[in-house]
Amino acid sequence: METETDKDLILEEFLPYKLAILSHTVSGLVARVYDKSFGLTIPEWRVIAIVGRFPGLSAVEVAERTMMDKVAVSRAVTKLIKRGRIEREFADADRRRSILNLSEEGRQVHDEVAPLALQMEDDLLHGLTEDEVATLNTVIERLLARARFISAP
Hints:
The chain contains 6 helices and 2 strands; from the N terminus they run H-H-H-H-E-E-H-H. It is mainly α.
């Protein structure tokens, strides 16, 4: 029987590596679509997507919901504000807390990019059965829950 210490790390078979490669490859596919057509980076699109779904979030809340680095979110928000795609207000009770909403242009971009992203997802999942897609989603959710459990303080 093989023990943990008997195993060699083979990077291309290592689950975290395979997940990172998959994520990077898929994000790159989608990013080409919204970069070419809309001049958006991956972090900018993620901010637009999350604020489009949950208006009124702060930048910190966007970072928490997307699991993105706060600095990356801050940079994306700043660029989106400068380009007129996000509007920022400050909370009356706490002037340090900003409230983010899509501008009219930001809503337009969201509404044009979202169907393209969904089409890319359909293309990516093409060839998988409904059961396989359901299993994939279940496995992803279980791995995510386990990773959160392991990383909890």
